[in-house]
Amino acid sequence: MAIDGYRPRNPEATLLYQVVAEQLETFLAGQQARDHTVPGFVEREFRDYLTCGVLAARGFIRVRCGSCGHERLVPFSCRRRGWCPSCGGRRMAETAAHLVDHVFPIVPVRQWVLSIPFALRYRLAYDSGLLSDVLNVFIRVVFGELRRRARELLGLKLSQCGAVTLVQRCGDALNLAPHFHSLVIHGVYAADENGQPEFHELPPPEDAAVVRVAALVAQRVESLLKRRGLGPDGDSDTAEALSRDEPGLAAIYSASIRGRIGLGPHAGNRVLTLGDQVDGDSLDSLQSPRCATVSGFSVHAKVSIDARDRLRLEDLQPDYNPVGADRMALNDDHACGASVVWRKRSGAAELR
Questions:
Q1: Which residues touch 169 (CB under 8 Å, ≥6 apart)?
Q2: In terms of residue numbers, what domain contains 26?
Q3: pTM score of the predicted model
Q4: In the chain, how many domains are there?
């Protein structure tokens, strides 16, 4: 085994770990005092993160090299999905490799991103059933657009599409913003003369096609909400289930969606972020190619990956967890005293 290259991580030395360790009990006690008890799964997420990779806290396995006899202790991880940057990063890398090696055929892929109106983000953040239904609407509309273009441009009456969607809960500033990154095969499959599936690549979508997708998504989601009684005239008790069942979590969700500090002496103030702003809602859909916003539903289809560019396809997989030590900094010069600030991050992508 390659021992010389192994460097055990030291989570206790990171700023993220220190902030959680120092503030967790204060946070939990403050919520308890306000009768806004933190849900059990949230507390477990934080507490397990504090034990991830710590030899004395979670346990370890002893690894011995059969050649030289050298031994190392490898700590166990928490395997949590929501907060730990190490476990989230490992899951992200494993999933990306699996999709490239075993799921996506060697064909061009285009990324379609759907951002949700602010008014709907709060509900989708906790209503998994509605989230799945909105995603289903989005994928059906995109597939319908691809099939329509296949009929008009290639004369294919029957065709099939393919996509993998990764649901993101956070924006680049760690704000609560449920949205979808769909990696869509840029073309269709149709049966050849022998009945075997044959791939047909499509040209890049025109701006009008993206506008049509955004408009159809907005229309169909609005109809979906009306059928569920979640429209403007719907049952307010049904729409505010989270506020009734988990008032503390509801308040934090609401503040995060609005980009505000939810707790503490600075509650209500805007969250301070540093770096480039990359937010689908802030992009000018009239000036950006292959982007459109209709009734708050923002659709972006600018990023394209060539069939043979498997490395870039793997790199395009969005983060499962946007939390990382490289994105936090301690700001001692802040007007209100020492504080932790969050750096926004932008990714390079080829636009075609």
A1: 125, 176, 177, 178
A2: 11-75
A3: 0.81
A4: 2
Position 264 in a domain: yes
Please calculate the CA angle 17-121-287 and round it to the nearest 5 degrees: 100
- Same domain? For 110 and 70 the reply is no
The secondary structure element, H or E, covering residue 216 is helix 207-227
d(CA 264, CA 350): 41
Rounded to 5 degrees, φ, ψ at 330 are: -90, 120
d(CA 56, CA 76): 10
Instruction: Report whether 299 contacts 210 (CB < 8 A).
Output: yes
Q: What is the pLDDT of residues 276-305, one digit of tens each?
A: 444 444 444 445 789 999 999 999 999 999
Q: What ranges make up the beta strands (E) of the chain?
A: 60-64, 71-75, 109-115, 163-170, 176-185, 187-191, 197-201, 273-274, 291-294, 297-305, 328-331, 339-343
Is position 80 within any domain?
A: no
Beta carbons of 165 and 103 less than 8 angstroms apart = no
